[in-house]
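Tutorial handout. Part one gives the primary structure; part two gives the three-dimensional structure as C-alpha cells.
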Amino acid sequence: MLQIIHDALLENNTPEVSHEVTPEVKRFISAINGEMSKHDIMLALGLKDEKNFRERYLKPVINAGLCEMTRPDAPNSRLQKYRLTESGRRLK
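Part two.
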C-alpha cells in the first residue's frame, strides 16, 4: 500500500519552476555592488519611478532568490539595504 502511495506521489511531483532571468533582473544584478539602499540601486540603474523599480526589478530578484534584504524583519526600514545572494553572485 505504501509503495502505491509513493509511486502516485512521484508521478504527480512536478519539477520546481525556474525563474526567468529578464533583462531587468540582469541589469539589477550587474548594478548592485555589496549592500546597497533602494535609492542607490535606482541611481545605478538610472531609474526614477519607485513603483516601476519595485515591480519590475526588486520583487522579481527577491522572489527568484537572487537578492535579499539586510533587514528582513523590518522591510520598510529607512536603513534597509539589499545584497545579492550566493545564487545572484553566481549570475554576475
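Part three, for discussion. The CA atoms of residues 1 and 66 lie 41 Å apart. The longest helix spans residues 50-63.
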